[in-house]
Design brief:
Number of strands: 16
CATH architecture of the largest domain: 3-Layer(aba) Sandwich
Largest sheet: 8 strands, mixed
CATH superfamily of the largest domain: NAD(P)-binding Rossmann-like Domain
Distance between the termini: 6 Å
CATH topology of the largest domain: Rossmann fold
Strand content: 25-35%
Order of helices and strands: EHHEEEEHEEHEHEHEHEEHEHHEHEHE
Number of helices: 12
Shape: globular
Structural class: alpha/beta
Helix content: 25-40%
């Protein structure tokens, strides 16, 4: 028997607070060496791209594989989303698939959770902060949600090229989080904050890195290919650079790969993996003037940890439908 969980089932059982705990534990396992994490496997077909993302967290007993498909013609041809994801969770003792769940909402929350954990360890603490959000989509929503779990936020600004999307974001997230959210008229205005979130599909830098204030913490999550970047060379040079995975950053993240190719930095500019900060192998923020930057590529350990959390919560709450495969 396997438990099947729809998107609505996952939404019902998954909270950001719980997800941040699970994701933090996953990063700890990665540093400890108790996580098996192959790089994602891409397979191209004539109409799209499929990505296979397996991971095993031994201490959490979370064995899973997420399948993500990106087919740009889906909306026009089949009335389906461009990106579709499903997660298979296995029993690590038998290998049996014990749960099949929708991966769309799970991915958005676990990606936000990683930035929430990074914010917890790297952003200025001890006072109310302001947040600048670049992008107004679903991922921008979960990013801001996670940041408000990690720090007390008094005000946020959203900047998107589609002003109507910014207004919808401000109304929706303002009501959800109970904070004031304004609409930035320019990228420069959004930089007048202590925490910056970049969650866009832009392949080129969103702002001039020389304008970022000392003491800012940045969560960069939108770009994830070698030739695309949301962050320019200047802000990379000015920042203490922390990544979710050293290997993934140097193989997938144009934000650091392009400055490296330009000769503006060396590989030693990569300061630490997030798990090394969590476990105190390396210190995080050292002063209120330091600019810290977390680069998120999205790792399968986040999916595995979150899928195990969702499965356990669903069993506890009696959510989902058991089927005989």
């Amino acid at each position: 028997m396997a438990l099947v969980l729809t998107r609505q089932d996952v939404i019902q059982v998954l909270s950001m607070k719980d997800c941040m705990v699970a994701v933090e534990n996953a990063f700890v396992e990665l540093v400890k060496g108790t996580a098996d994490l192959p790089l994602r496997i891409p397979i191209k077909s004539p109409d799209g791209l499929s990505l296979y993302m397996p991971a095993y967290l031994r201490e959490m007993k979370a064995l899973a594989c997420k399948v993500v498909a990106v087919y740009k013609d889906n909306p026009s041809r089949f009335n389906l989303p461009t990106t579709i994801g499903k997660v298979l969770l296995q029993n690590p003792e038998t290998g049996e698939v014990i749960c099949i769940m929708d991966g769309g909402y799970l991915t958005a929350v676990r990606t936000g959770a990683a930035s929430g954990v990074a914010t917890k360890y790297l952003a200025i603490d001890g006072r109310e902060l302001t947040v600048g959000v670049f992008g107004a989509g679903v991922q921008a929503q979960t990013q801001l949600w996670a940041v408000t779990e990690a720090r007390k936020v008094k005000h946020a600004l959203v900047f998107d090229k589609d002003e109507s999307a910014s207004r919808k974001f401000a109304d929706t997230m303002g009501a959800k989080l109970g904070i004031d959210i304004g609409i930035a008229k320019s990228a420069e205005e959004a930089l007048e904050t202590e925490i910056i979130i970049t969650a866009t599909s832009s392949p080129t830098p969103l702002f001039n890195g020389s304008l970022v204030k000392p003491g800012t913490h940045i969560n960069g999550i939108g770009s994830h290919t070698p030739n695309a970047r949301e962050l320019d060379t200047e802000i990379i040079k000015r920042s203490k650079f922390i990544g979710d995975s050293r290997d993934a950053c140097f193989k997938e993240a144009g934000d650091i790969m392009i400055p490296l190719q330009e000769g503006a930095i060396t590989e030693t500019h990569f300061y630490a993996e997030l798990g090394e900060i969590i476990t105190k192998k390396l210190p995080g923020r050292l002063s209120d003037d330091e600019i810290t930057l977390f680069k998120s590529n999205g790792l399968a350990i986040q999916d595995a940890a979150t899928a195990k959390l969702v499965y356990d919560k669903a069993l506890e709450m009696g959510v989902g439908r058991e089927i005989d495969l």
